[in-house]
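Ticket opened by: R.M.
Priority: normal
Category: complex prediction / small molecule

The reporter submitted a protein together with zinc ion and asked that the result be attached to this ticket for the collaborator who will pick it up next week. Submitted input follows.
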Amino acid sequence: MRTSYRSSFARIAGPAAFVLLGAGAAVGPLTGQQNMSDVEITTIELESDLFMLMGRGGNIGLSVGDDGAFLIDDQFAPLTEKILAAIAAVTDQPVRWVLNTHWHGDHTGGNENLGEAGAMIVAHENVYRRMNPAEFEDLVGRSGQAPRAALPVVTFDEGVRFHWNGRHIEVTHVGVAHTDGDAIVHFPRANVFHMGDTFFRGRYPFIDVDSGGGVDGVIAAANFVLERSSEGTRIIPGHGELASPEHLREYRDMLETVRLRVAGLVANGRTEDQVVAAGPTGDLDAVWGENPERFVRAVYRSLAGS
Ligand SMILES: [Zn+2]
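Result attached by the on-call engineer:
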Protein backbone atom coordinates (compact mmCIF):
# COMPACT_ATOMS: atom_id res chain seq x y z
CA MET A 1 0.00 0.00 0.00
CA ARG A 2 1.05 3.54 -0.34
CA THR A 3 1.17 6.36 2.10
CA SER A 4 3.25 9.46 1.93
CA TYR A 5 6.53 9.39 3.81
CA ARG A 6 6.63 11.26 7.07
CA SER A 7 8.28 10.62 10.33
CA SER A 8 6.77 11.71 13.60
CA PHE A 9 9.49 10.54 15.94
CA ALA A 10 12.81 11.84 17.03
CA ARG A 11 15.48 9.90 18.81
CA ILE A 12 16.34 11.32 22.17
CA ALA A 13 18.75 8.92 23.83
CA GLY A 14 20.11 5.53 22.95
CA PRO A 15 19.19 3.37 20.02
CA ALA A 16 15.92 2.19 21.50
CA ALA A 17 14.62 5.39 23.03
CA PHE A 18 12.13 7.29 20.94
CA VAL A 19 9.59 9.89 21.90
CA LEU A 20 6.48 10.97 20.10
CA LEU A 21 6.70 14.61 19.12
CA GLY A 22 3.57 14.81 17.08
CA ALA A 23 1.72 12.54 14.75
CA GLY A 24 -1.06 12.86 12.28
CA ALA A 25 0.55 14.99 9.61
CA ALA A 26 0.71 12.20 7.11
CA VAL A 27 -2.44 10.35 6.23
CA GLY A 28 -2.22 7.94 3.36
CA PRO A 29 -5.17 6.98 1.22
CA LEU A 30 -5.49 3.66 2.99
CA THR A 31 -3.81 3.83 6.35
CA GLY A 32 -3.63 6.86 8.55
CA GLN A 33 -0.88 7.16 11.06
CA GLN A 34 -2.56 9.60 13.42
CA ASN A 35 -3.02 7.11 16.16
CA MET A 36 -0.98 3.96 16.48
CA SER A 37 -1.52 3.56 20.21
CA ASP A 38 -3.91 0.68 19.62
CA VAL A 39 -1.48 -1.26 17.45
CA GLU A 40 0.07 -4.40 18.85
CA ILE A 41 3.02 -6.11 17.24
CA THR A 42 2.48 -9.85 16.83
CA THR A 43 5.52 -12.08 16.46
CA ILE A 44 5.18 -15.28 14.43
CA GLU A 45 8.06 -17.74 14.78
CA LEU A 46 9.14 -19.33 11.50
CA GLU A 47 12.34 -20.80 12.92
CA SER A 48 13.96 -20.22 16.29
CA ASP A 49 15.85 -17.25 14.79
CA LEU A 50 13.51 -16.18 11.96
CA PHE A 51 10.25 -14.33 12.45
CA MET A 52 7.38 -12.48 10.84
CA LEU A 53 6.10 -9.41 12.69
CA MET A 54 2.63 -8.03 12.10
CA GLY A 55 1.45 -4.64 13.31
CA ARG A 56 0.04 -1.98 11.02
CA GLY A 57 1.38 -1.50 7.53
CA GLY A 58 3.54 -3.95 5.67
CA ASN A 59 4.50 -7.24 7.25
CA ILE A 60 8.02 -7.37 8.69
CA GLY A 61 10.60 -10.14 8.34
CA LEU A 62 13.25 -10.58 11.03
CA SER A 63 16.43 -12.68 11.15
CA VAL A 64 18.30 -12.65 14.45
CA GLY A 65 21.63 -14.05 15.56
CA ASP A 66 25.11 -13.18 16.71
CA ASP A 67 25.70 -10.84 13.77
CA GLY A 68 22.73 -8.65 14.67
CA ALA A 69 19.11 -8.22 13.68
CA PHE A 70 18.29 -8.11 9.98
CA LEU A 71 14.92 -6.48 9.37
CA ILE A 72 12.77 -6.51 6.24
CA ASP A 73 10.59 -3.37 6.23
CA ASP A 74 9.71 -1.25 9.25
CA GLN A 75 6.06 -0.09 9.01
CA PHE A 76 5.32 3.41 10.39
CA ALA A 77 7.55 5.70 12.45
CA PRO A 78 5.21 5.80 15.47
CA LEU A 79 5.53 2.01 15.70
CA THR A 80 9.34 1.89 15.90
CA GLU A 81 9.39 1.67 19.67
CA LYS A 82 6.94 -1.24 19.68
CA ILE A 83 8.79 -2.99 16.85
CA LEU A 84 12.08 -2.64 18.73
CA ALA A 85 10.43 -4.06 21.83
CA ALA A 86 9.21 -7.05 19.82
CA ILE A 87 12.73 -7.53 18.44
CA ALA A 88 14.23 -7.22 21.92
CA ALA A 89 11.99 -10.07 23.06
CA VAL A 90 13.84 -12.46 20.74
CA THR A 91 17.39 -11.05 20.61
CA ASP A 92 19.70 -8.81 22.59
CA GLN A 93 21.41 -7.65 19.40
CA PRO A 94 20.68 -4.29 17.72
CA VAL A 95 19.15 -3.86 14.27
CA ARG A 96 22.13 -3.80 11.91
CA TRP A 97 20.36 -4.01 8.56
CA VAL A 98 17.01 -2.82 7.23
CA LEU A 99 16.04 -4.13 3.81
CA ASN A 100 13.16 -2.19 2.24
CA THR A 101 11.00 -4.20 -0.18
CA HIS A 102 9.89 -0.92 -1.83
CA TRP A 103 9.53 2.77 -1.03
CA HIS A 104 5.96 3.04 0.29
CA GLY A 105 5.60 4.72 3.67
CA ASP A 106 3.92 1.77 5.36
CA HIS A 107 7.11 -0.23 4.71
CA THR A 108 9.77 2.48 5.18
CA GLY A 109 8.19 4.71 7.84
CA GLY A 110 10.58 3.48 10.52
CA ASN A 111 13.69 4.06 8.40
CA GLU A 112 14.61 7.40 9.90
CA ASN A 113 14.42 6.11 13.47
CA LEU A 114 16.38 2.97 12.66
CA GLY A 115 18.86 4.77 10.42
CA GLU A 116 19.59 7.28 13.16
CA ALA A 117 20.04 4.40 15.58
CA GLY A 118 22.77 3.00 13.33
CA ALA A 119 21.07 0.49 11.04
CA MET A 120 22.27 0.24 7.44
CA ILE A 121 19.36 0.63 5.06
CA VAL A 122 19.42 -1.33 1.82
CA ALA A 123 17.00 -1.17 -1.10
CA HIS A 124 16.66 -1.21 -4.85
CA GLU A 125 18.12 1.87 -6.52
CA ASN A 126 14.63 3.07 -7.48
CA VAL A 127 13.65 3.11 -3.79
CA TYR A 128 16.52 5.49 -3.19
CA ARG A 129 15.38 7.64 -6.13
CA ARG A 130 11.75 7.75 -5.01
CA MET A 131 12.65 8.61 -1.42
CA ASN A 132 15.10 11.25 -2.60
CA PRO A 133 13.37 12.89 -5.58
CA ALA A 134 15.14 16.20 -5.08
CA GLU A 135 18.23 14.58 -6.58
CA PHE A 136 16.43 13.14 -9.60
CA GLU A 137 14.64 15.70 -11.74
CA ASP A 138 13.83 13.03 -14.34
CA LEU A 139 11.89 10.92 -11.84
CA VAL A 140 8.49 9.93 -13.18
CA GLY A 141 5.58 9.56 -10.79
CA ARG A 142 4.77 10.34 -7.21
CA SER A 143 7.14 10.17 -4.32
CA GLY A 144 8.01 12.11 -1.22
CA GLN A 145 11.30 13.46 0.04
CA ALA A 146 12.49 11.43 3.01
CA PRO A 147 14.87 12.71 5.67
CA ARG A 148 18.51 11.86 5.08
CA ALA A 149 18.66 9.24 7.83
CA ALA A 150 15.74 7.40 6.20
CA LEU A 151 17.46 6.94 2.86
CA PRO A 152 19.04 3.68 1.78
CA VAL A 153 22.83 3.75 2.08
CA VAL A 154 23.33 0.67 -0.12
CA THR A 155 21.34 0.10 -3.31
CA PHE A 156 21.20 -2.63 -5.93
CA ASP A 157 19.76 -3.12 -9.39
CA GLU A 158 19.29 -6.86 -10.03
CA GLY A 159 19.76 -8.20 -6.54
CA VAL A 160 22.11 -8.71 -3.62
CA ARG A 161 23.05 -11.52 -1.22
CA PHE A 162 23.63 -11.25 2.50
CA HIS A 163 25.66 -13.79 4.44
CA TRP A 164 24.47 -13.02 7.89
CA ASN A 165 23.49 -14.82 11.07
CA GLY A 166 24.67 -18.06 9.46
CA ARG A 167 22.22 -17.65 6.61
CA HIS A 168 22.41 -16.84 2.94
CA ILE A 169 19.73 -14.24 2.31
CA GLU A 170 18.96 -13.74 -1.38
CA VAL A 171 17.36 -10.49 -2.49
CA THR A 172 16.03 -10.24 -6.05
CA HIS A 173 14.45 -7.46 -8.06
CA VAL A 174 12.00 -9.11 -10.43
CA GLY A 175 11.24 -6.12 -12.62
CA VAL A 176 8.47 -3.56 -12.43
CA ALA A 177 5.67 -5.09 -10.34
CA HIS A 178 4.01 -3.36 -7.37
CA THR A 179 6.39 -0.43 -8.05
CA ASP A 180 9.60 -0.09 -10.06
CA GLY A 181 11.78 -0.96 -7.06
CA ASP A 182 10.44 -4.16 -5.51
CA ALA A 183 12.64 -6.69 -3.77
CA ILE A 184 11.77 -10.32 -3.05
CA VAL A 185 13.72 -11.85 -0.19
CA HIS A 186 14.49 -15.58 -0.02
CA PHE A 187 15.81 -17.52 2.96
CA PRO A 188 16.65 -20.80 1.16
CA ARG A 189 17.53 -22.96 4.15
CA ALA A 190 14.39 -21.92 5.99
CA ASN A 191 12.33 -22.20 2.78
CA VAL A 192 10.83 -18.78 3.50
CA PHE A 193 10.12 -15.83 1.22
CA HIS A 194 9.18 -12.23 1.93
CA MET A 195 7.43 -10.88 -1.17
CA GLY A 196 6.72 -7.31 -0.08
CA ASP A 197 3.69 -5.86 -1.81
CA THR A 198 4.05 -8.04 -4.88
CA PHE A 199 1.73 -10.32 -2.85
CA PHE A 200 -1.42 -9.33 -1.00
CA ARG A 201 -2.78 -12.54 0.45
CA GLY A 202 -6.45 -13.14 -0.34
CA ARG A 203 -7.28 -9.84 -1.94
CA TYR A 204 -6.80 -7.74 -5.02
CA PRO A 205 -3.39 -6.11 -5.05
CA PHE A 206 -2.58 -2.45 -5.17
CA ILE A 207 -0.41 -1.93 -8.24
CA ASP A 208 1.24 1.49 -8.09
CA VAL A 209 1.40 2.31 -11.78
CA ASP A 210 2.40 5.88 -10.94
CA SER A 211 5.51 4.46 -9.27
CA GLY A 212 6.33 2.41 -12.33
CA GLY A 213 4.40 -0.74 -11.36
CA GLY A 214 2.57 -3.08 -13.74
CA VAL A 215 0.41 -6.19 -13.60
CA ASP A 216 2.76 -8.33 -15.70
CA GLY A 217 5.53 -7.79 -13.17
CA VAL A 218 3.25 -8.78 -10.29
CA ILE A 219 2.44 -12.02 -12.14
CA ALA A 220 6.16 -12.53 -12.82
CA ALA A 221 6.93 -12.02 -9.14
CA ALA A 222 4.38 -14.67 -8.17
CA ASN A 223 5.82 -17.07 -10.74
CA PHE A 224 9.36 -16.37 -9.55
CA VAL A 225 8.45 -17.50 -6.05
CA LEU A 226 6.24 -20.40 -7.16
CA GLU A 227 9.09 -21.78 -9.28
CA ARG A 228 11.29 -21.82 -6.18
CA SER A 229 8.63 -23.14 -3.81
CA SER A 230 7.94 -26.58 -2.44
CA GLU A 231 5.19 -27.96 -0.24
CA GLY A 232 6.66 -26.57 2.95
CA THR A 233 7.43 -23.09 1.66
CA ARG A 234 6.16 -20.25 3.80
CA ILE A 235 5.57 -16.86 2.26
CA ILE A 236 5.35 -13.54 4.06
CA PRO A 237 3.06 -11.35 1.98
CA GLY A 238 3.26 -7.56 2.05
CA HIS A 239 -0.17 -7.57 3.63
CA GLY A 240 -2.23 -10.39 5.10
CA GLU A 241 -1.46 -13.55 7.04
CA LEU A 242 1.50 -15.87 6.48
CA ALA A 243 0.84 -17.79 3.27
CA SER A 244 1.55 -21.05 1.49
CA PRO A 245 2.41 -21.61 -2.19
CA GLU A 246 -1.23 -22.64 -2.67
CA HIS A 247 -2.40 -19.17 -1.58
CA LEU A 248 0.10 -17.61 -3.96
CA ARG A 249 -0.98 -19.91 -6.81
CA GLU A 250 -4.62 -18.88 -6.37
CA TYR A 251 -3.54 -15.25 -6.35
CA ARG A 252 -1.45 -15.70 -9.49
CA ASP A 253 -4.35 -17.43 -11.26
CA MET A 254 -6.70 -14.60 -10.31
CA LEU A 255 -4.22 -12.05 -11.65
CA GLU A 256 -3.87 -13.92 -14.92
CA THR A 257 -7.64 -14.22 -15.31
CA VAL A 258 -8.25 -10.52 -14.80
CA ARG A 259 -5.28 -9.57 -16.96
CA LEU A 260 -6.63 -11.71 -19.81
CA ARG A 261 -10.11 -10.22 -19.56
CA VAL A 262 -8.89 -6.64 -19.40
CA ALA A 263 -6.45 -7.25 -22.26
CA GLY A 264 -9.38 -8.46 -24.37
CA LEU A 265 -11.34 -5.31 -23.62
CA VAL A 266 -8.30 -3.13 -24.38
CA ALA A 267 -7.82 -4.97 -27.69
CA ASN A 268 -11.43 -4.11 -28.52
CA GLY A 269 -10.70 -0.45 -28.01
CA ARG A 270 -12.50 0.03 -24.69
CA THR A 271 -11.59 3.06 -22.62
CA GLU A 272 -10.52 2.78 -19.00
CA ASP A 273 -14.01 3.73 -17.76
CA GLN A 274 -15.61 1.26 -20.16
CA VAL A 275 -13.34 -1.49 -18.88
CA VAL A 276 -14.36 -0.70 -15.30
CA ALA A 277 -18.04 -0.62 -16.32
CA ALA A 278 -17.68 -4.01 -18.01
CA GLY A 279 -16.95 -5.52 -14.58
CA PRO A 280 -14.15 -7.88 -15.58
CA THR A 281 -13.79 -9.15 -12.01
CA GLY A 282 -17.50 -9.70 -11.35
CA ASP A 283 -17.37 -13.39 -10.46
CA LEU A 284 -14.15 -12.93 -8.44
CA ASP A 285 -15.17 -10.11 -6.14
CA ALA A 286 -16.83 -12.33 -3.56
CA VAL A 287 -13.47 -13.95 -2.86
CA TRP A 288 -10.95 -11.21 -3.61
CA GLY A 289 -12.62 -7.97 -2.51
CA GLU A 290 -15.70 -5.93 -2.93
CA ASN A 291 -13.98 -2.92 -4.43
CA PRO A 292 -12.07 -4.00 -7.51
CA GLU A 293 -12.15 -0.64 -9.30
CA ARG A 294 -8.68 0.53 -8.28
CA PHE A 295 -7.24 -2.85 -9.25
CA VAL A 296 -9.03 -2.93 -12.61
CA ARG A 297 -7.86 0.60 -13.41
CA ALA A 298 -4.29 -0.37 -12.57
CA VAL A 299 -4.49 -3.44 -14.80
CA TYR A 300 -5.92 -1.31 -17.60
CA ARG A 301 -3.20 1.30 -17.20
CA SER A 302 -0.52 -1.41 -17.05
CA LEU A 303 -1.69 -2.78 -20.39
CA ALA A 304 -2.81 0.39 -22.18
CA GLY A 305 0.17 2.38 -21.00
CA SER A 306 -1.84 5.48 -20.19
ZN1 LIG B 1 3.29 -0.85 -1.15
